[in-house]
Specification:
By secondary structure, this protein is mainly alpha-helical. The protein has 13 helices and 6 strands. Helix 1 crosses helix 3, helix 9 crosses helix 10 and helix 10 crosses helix 11.
C-alpha cells in the first residue's frame, strides 16, 4: 500500500465516487442532478445526503476500513434520498417513497433502512439468517460422504461423491419450494490484475455448471492504488456461494501445485505450456464431475427434466436473476475466442485433472462457520 497522503486520497476518492454516481445513473436509467461529492470524517455516519446544498458525503472511515462495494451501496442509499428530494419528497425519511427509490436504484435490502448509512449496518451484514444456519446443519450431513470421497478405492470414492452431490441437489430443490424468502448473496474474487485469464474463466464454467451459482465478470475500484482491477463475482444462496468460493481457491491452488510437479515434462515456451496445462487440467476435472452425475441434466439441458423440477429451477433462476439485476442492470454477454494452446500439454493436463479430488473446506476454527465442499 502506498504512503497515505490524506488530501491526495480525498481528491481521488471524490473523483471516483463522481464516476460511480454517473455509472449508477446510466445503469439504472436515471437522470439526477449531479451533486457535490464530499469526503468527511465521521464515526457516527457512513454517508449523508444534504438537500440544502445538494451534497452527498461519504465517510473516510467507510472507505478505509471496508470493501469498495460497501461504499457503493452507501452511495446508493444517499442517492435514494436524493431521488426522493428530486421527486418532491425531501421529508421521505426511510418510508415508502424512499423504499421505492431504493428499488429503482437497486439498493440491497440491508441498506434500505435507517441503519443503511450508519455503522450499525455491519452487524446486520454479518448476522446469519435462519436459512443459512439450517443450510449449515444440512451440509454437516454430507461430511462423512466427503471423507469417503478421499478414499483410495476409486469405486468407493465415486459412489460417495455421487451421494454427496445427490444430497446437495435435493437440498437446493427443497429450498426452491420454501415459502420463506430465499437469501441470496454474492462474493467478489479478484487477483488485482487488469485481465481475467482463460483458466479463471474455465474455473467459472465449472462453478456455474456444477455448484449452483451464477458468475459475472466485472471490475472493481481499489481505493488505495486508484486503479480498477478485473473481478469475478459469484451469486447464489449463501451456502452455495460459500462452497463455490472455496472451490475456486482450491482449484487455483491445485493448478499451481500440479504445474510445479509436472512442468519439467514439457519443453515448449513456458507461458504457453502452463496455459495449455491449466486449461487441460480444468477440462479433465469438468469431465470427471460430469461423469459423476449421469442422471442429472446438464444446465443447458434442463428443459428435458421432469416438469415439476424444471419449474422449480426456472423459478429459482428467475429470483437469482432479479438479485443479480440489482447490481448489474445492464449485463451483456461477450463472445470470447479459444486460446492458442499446445494440444499435447493440454491432453496431459486433462489426464491429471481427472484425478483431482476436492476436499472439504473449513471457514473458521470456532466450529460454527464450517464450510463443506462436494
Amino acid at each position: 500500500m502506498p504512503p497515505f497522503n490524506h488530501d491526495q486520497y480525498l481528491r481521488l476518492w471524490a473523483r471516483q465516487l463522481q464516476k460511480e454516481f454517473e455509472d449508477i445513473c446510466w445503469s439504472h436509467q436515471l437522470t439526477l442532478p449531479t451533486p457535490v461529492i464530499a469526503i468527511f470524517e465521521s464515526t457516527r455516519h457512513l454517508g449523508e445526503w444534504l438537500h440544502a446544498s445538494q451534497t452527498i458525503r461519504i465517510s473516510t472511515r467507510l472507505i478505509l476500513h471496508h470493501p469498495w462495494p460497501v461504499t457503493i451501496n452507501v452511495l446508493k442509499h444517499e442517492m435514494a434520498h436524493q431521488l426522493c428530494s428530486a421527486n418532491g419528497h425531501s421529508d421521505a425519511g426511510h418510508g415508502p417513497h424512499f423504499q421505492e427509490a431504493c428499488v429503482r436504484l437497486g439498493v440491497p435490502k440491508a441498506y434500505r433502512t435507517a441503519k443503511g448509512d450508519s455503522p450499525e449496518i455491519f452487524a446486520e451484514l454479518e448476522s446469519d439468517s435462519q436459512m443459512v444456519q439450517e443450510g449449515r446443519r444440512f451440509f454437516a450431513k454430507v461430511e462423512k460422504l466427503l471423507a469417503l470421497a478421499r478414499s483410495p478405492n476409486e469405486h468407493e470414492a465415486a459412489l460417495a461423491m455421487q451421494k454427496a452431490n445427490d444430497l446437495i441437489e435435493r437440498y437446493n430443490l427443497q429450498q426452491m419450494t420454501a415459502e420463506q424468502e430465499r437469501r441470496y448473496t454474492h462474493v467478489i474474487i479478484t487477483r488485482h490484475k487488469k485481465r481475467i485469464e482463460g483458466w479463471q474463466r474455465s474455473i467459472c464454467t465449472i462453478l456455474r455448471d456444477f455448484f449452483y451459482v451464477k458468475i459475472v465478470q466485472s471490475d472493481l475500484y481499489d481505493p488505495f492504488s486508484d486503479q480498477r482491477h478485473k473481478s469475478i463475482e459469484l451469486f447464489g444462496l449463501a451456502e452455495n456461494v460459500a462452497v463455490a468460493e472455496y472451490c475456486y481457491h482450491f482449484l487455483e491452488r491445485e493448478l499451481e501445485y500440479l504445474w510445479g510437479q509436472n512442468k519439467g515434462r514439457f519443453t515448449g515456451r513456458t507461458v504457453t505450456e502452463r496455459k495449455s496445462y491449466y486449461l487441460g487440467v480444468l477440462h479433465g476435472f469438468y469431465q470427471k464431475l460430469q461423469a459423476q452425475q449421469p442422471a442429472r441434466p446438464h444446465p443447458s439441458e434442463r428443459h428435458s427434466a421432469k416438469a415439476t423440477t424444471c419449474a422449480l429451477i426456472v423459478a429459482a433462476d428467475r429470483g437469482l436473476a432479479d438479485f443479480i439485476n440489482q447490481r448489474f442492470p445492464r449485463l451483456r454477454t461477450v463472445q470470447r475466442y479459444g486460446a492458442r494452446i499446445n494440444l499435447s500439454t493440454y491432453d496431459h493436463g486433462a489426464a491429471d485433472g481427472k484425478n483431482i479430488i476436492l476436499h472439504k473446506g473449513v471457514g473458521s476454527q470456532d466450529g460454527n462457520q464450517g464450510r463443506l465442499l462436494t
